[in-house]
Amino acid sequence: MPLLIQNIVVERITSTAELFDKYQHLQENAKAFRSQPLTDVDPKCLLYVQQREFAATTPADDSVSVIGSEDATTCHLVVLRHTGSGAACFAHCDGSNTCAEVPLFIKSVTSLSTCCNEGRLELHLVGGFKDEAMTSHELSLNILAAFQQLKDDIHLETCCITEMNDVVLNAVHRPAVYGVAVNVKTGKVFPANFPYKGPAEALRSARTFTGGQMVDIYDSSRGLVKVGPCKWSPNMGIAFWLSQDDAIILKYLSTSPKAEPPDFVHHIKSTIQFLLKHPNSDSLFPGGQPQLYHRTESGEWESVASQVDS
Fold it and tell me: What per-residue string of b and e applies to 274-287 under the rule 16 or more CB within 10 Å gives b?
């Protein structure tokens, strides 16, 4: 069980309440984390990670300085960083297959740290709240258990999850922090807003909406965002959602209807419209090849294919 808190191996955790009661400093750290002001992240240095995506890079990356994600309600945002190499992985987890996903995060960081003999792996967890179905609590325990099962020593530094990320507004429980980023150059993890969520935001959302599993979206050696190829059925019967009231969409398509950010329904409808416009996903990936994006000198993500075509 190589999950450590203050260099002490953590035994089996049966509840987050037990965790915070036993390790009081985690509560203080969580309170300090959530009290930080939100930072608007400059799109020109950002790699945005959507739900069921992860990405990793190092401080030497000329294309990416910050990795982050938001719109996490019951979802958890995971930052794993090697203090020696500075390599960092960011993941947006929703519990789809946690035990299989966590080893991917470890591998992504350790593979970027092979030349570094010093340092340790540090873990930062943010997300969830006291939702009625206790979906957040279950995911918190599953993520912690998945890290405990690894052979690598993982030092838990930030744990702002479930009840420690809960706030009550107008008698409704919701997350105190919805978005998080890590500055790869400095290692700082902080609450954040993201005015830009590309590239290929609609396509990436469609992949997740249609059941796509956790995927690595970034090739740090080439500075390329990689999307797909992915497949979905052309006959999903999803058009009827576009005529439904917001309350119905929230009720049936959200794990936390009362706590979603204001643009949740708009995002769902935009994703469905994209899927209806592209019923055959093969057309988006000519030759079965992924869509690739690189950062231009002006700081924008640009399709490599479109650049070649021009």
Answer: bbeebeebeebbee
Q: Count the neighbouring beta carbons within 10 Å of the beta carbon of residue 148.
A: 18
Nearest CA to 66 out of 36, 34, 41, 83 is that of: 41
Residue 50, sorted as left (phi over 0), alpha (psi -120 to 50) or beta, turns out to be beta
> What are 279-305's pLDDT values in tens digits?
989 889 988 999 999 999 999 999 996
Residue 306 pLDDT greater than 80, yes or no:
no
Q: What is the DSSP string of 14-77?
A: S-HHHHHHH-HHHHHHHHHHHTSPPEEPPGGGEEE--TTEEEEE-TT-SS-SEEEE---SSSEE
Between CA 15 and CA 21 the distance in angstroms is 10
Block residue for tokens 């902080």: 190
Phi, psi of 283 (to 5 degrees): -65, -20
Q: Which helix (H) or strand (E) holds 183?
A: strand 180-183
Say how far apart CA 180 and CA 115 lie, in whole Å: 28
What angle (nearest 5°) sits at the alpha carbon of residue 12, between those of residues 153 and 30?
70
Separation of alpha carbons 17 and 141, rounded Å: 11
Q: Is the peptide bond before 229 cis (omega within 30 degrees of 0)?
A: yes
The conformation of residue 284, written as its DSSP 8-state character, comes to G
Indicate yes or no: pTM above 0.90.
yes
In angstroms, the CA 134 to CA 200 distance is 32
- Pull the structure tokens for residue 48: 């945005």
Strands 180-183 and 46-48: unpaired
DSSP 3-state assignment of 205? helix
**Cα gap 234→250, rounded to integer Å:** 24
Nearest to 189 by CA among 69, 23, 287, 28: 69
Helix, strand and coil content of the chain, in percent to the nearest 5, comes to 35, 25, 40
Q: Indicate the pairing of strand 224-227 with strand 291-295.
A: antiparallel
